[in-house]
Amino acid sequence: xxxxxDSHAHYDSEAFDEDRKELVGSLPERGVCxxxxxxxxxxxxxxxxxxxxxxxxxxxxxxVHPHEAEKCLNGYLPVLKKLxxxxxCVAVGEIxxxxxxxxxPRDVQIKIFEQQIVLAKELDLPIIVHxxxxxxxxxxLLKRYKPKGVIHCFSGSAEMAKxxxxxxxxxxxxxxxxxxxxxxxxxxxxxxxxxxxxIETDCPYMxxxxxxxxxxxxxxxxxxxxxxxxxxxxxxxxxxDLTRKNANRLFKLEL
Length: 255
Ligand code: NI
Known about the structure:
- By secondary structure, the protein is of the alpha/beta class.
- It has helices spanning 20-26, 42-54, 76-84, 106-123, 135-145, 158-166, 183-191, 221-232, 236-250, and strands at residues 4-9, 32-38, 58-62, 89-98, 127-132, 149-151, 170-173, 197-199.
- The longest helix has 18 residues, at 106-123.
- The two termini are 13 Å apart.
């Protein structure tokens, strides 16, 4: 078995400072065939590319997260464009809007998100979207620009998922589907077509049940797949197979 494609991980996180190389290096023997390491600012975009350089099965998404939008320096775009043009960068991400924490003012979040969507379109790259309690503004921008990509850790309703699918985008689901209060994402899982679902960890966060509280890594994905399989009426292996195929299609890879 080697069919775990983690479409959203943060191995650049300090949670992995102690054992990063050892841990990432051990993932293939634990069933992992592909990882997209998602950046949150310019520094982690570089770190993501470094990780991707070191490990064949790791690819990078470079971009500025809404939490960091306010810290973005003038003139960041040409630098980001250069990073996104690197061979192992396969997406612009993670980018989006977060109205739960509001760490950056909303108008700044929108501006930085919009600029990066335009960049992704210019480079013909998919985007990896973070949308927390900002569904309306996120959908407005996605409908305006119609980028390729995925909404990660999807937290919207089945109604919103329909709109996202209509735009041709993918839905990313992770450890949250195993949580007790996971009503909405499970409803979404039941209506997503087989060719539009991605699976992810968002590690070191979002550790699936029964390991909540522990540091997460890509090898925990089968627990998420098990839960998805249960509500989708199929098997965990099938979920891993189809999400692997979908990730390869979206990111133009053959892992
Ligand atoms: Ni993330």
